Amino acid sequence: VQLQASGGGLVQAGDSLRLSCAASGRTFTNYYMGWFRQAPGKEREFVAAISWNGYITTYGNSVKGRFTISRGYGMNTMYLQMNSLKPEDTAVYYCATAPTGRRTVEVASYDYWGQGTQVTVSS
Question: Is pLDDT of 29 > 90?
Fold first, then answer.
């Protein structure tokens, strides 16, 4: 199983970015896909998760109302639309997958992880 995250970059506060995650190596039916982020010196933080059919989404409190998670056609792709970015959103963003039934806000629930993509928001 491979997950490839992309779309990060350097932006200014208030700008938008769209991250993508492409998964391969298995069928991801009955798997959640999620985004986490990790800033230097901090623990990995839950950002958002989406069910295999796209019907259920969950967001971390710090991104609610600004970020939108979605899945692409065929369910092996995932996106994170990030609007109104703030300097505190600066981090490496990781995509990951978890079997349905686990707590999707927890790092330990996820079996497979991508390599991460850097997002830097300047003030």
Answer: no
How do beta strands 9-12 and 117-122 pair? parallel
The first and second tokens of residue 34, run together, are 């999620």
Q: What are the tokens at 60?
A: 């971390």
Written as one letter, the residue type at 91 is A
Cβ(113)–Cβ(5) under 8 Å?
no
Percent of the chain topping pLDDT 90: 84
Phi and psi at 96, nearest 5°, equal -155, 165
CB contact at 8 A, 70 and 79: yes
| pLDDT score at 117 | 98
Q: Between the CA atoms of 83, 24, 113 and 95, what dihedral angle is there, to the nearest 10 degrees? A: 10
